[in-house]
Amino acid sequence: MSQLSLAIDSSLLVRDAQGRYLPASTDQILAAARQAIDHKMQRGASFTAPATVKDYLRTKLAGFEHEVFAVLFLDSQHRLIEYVEMFHGTIDSASVHPREVVKEALRCNAAAVIFSHNHPSGNPEPSQADRQITQRLKDALALVDVRTLDHIVVGGESTESFAERGLL
After folding, report:
1. In what order do the strands lie in the sheet with 12-15?
2. How many domains are contained in the chain?
3. Are residues 20 and 64 in the same domain?
4. pLDDT (tens place) for every residue of the chain, 168 residues total
5. How much is the pTM?
6. Where in this chain does the record put each MPN domain (predicted)?
7. Could you say which of 49, 71, 104, 118 would form a disulfide bridge with 154 (CB–CB 3.0 to 4.6 Å)?
């Protein structure tokens, strides 16, 4: 990936192989935003405020043209251990495997998790399949004493929280 920098006129530019600055593509801008949020919210960052969680996940998942299922693995104080994009899918679905999520939670020694995935359509309304996989994941993680705090669906700039809607 090219080095990103901010020009004096506030346009996002990238430097090409010859050292010239060119306008950044949408993908490059989104990649830069994801890098910025990674630097801001590093291991140990607190995820106790729903607005913080939503902003973080919106920055990480908005703009993908395919579904991405990610998990925030948290310690007992709900501080970030690791953000992991676990499954990548198509424009309208992603296969999620509870066994793999449990394995990753144990590897991270997580006490709690927050699930998230994007809807490339831009509509964050949870589907019936979203509700079913969330329950399966919650049940599987409960067997190893890992709490499920929320599942955030990102649709463009909008988000929906399972916890806020009483779906957990």
Report:
1. 4-6, 12-15, 21-23
2. 2
3. no
4. 334 443 333 456 666 677 777 777 766 666 665 565 554 555 667 777 888 899 999 999 988 999 999 999 999 999 999 999 999 999 888 999 999 999 999 999 999 999 999 999 999 999 999 999 999 999 999 999 999 999 999 998 999 999 999 999
5. 0.74
6. 46-168
7. 118
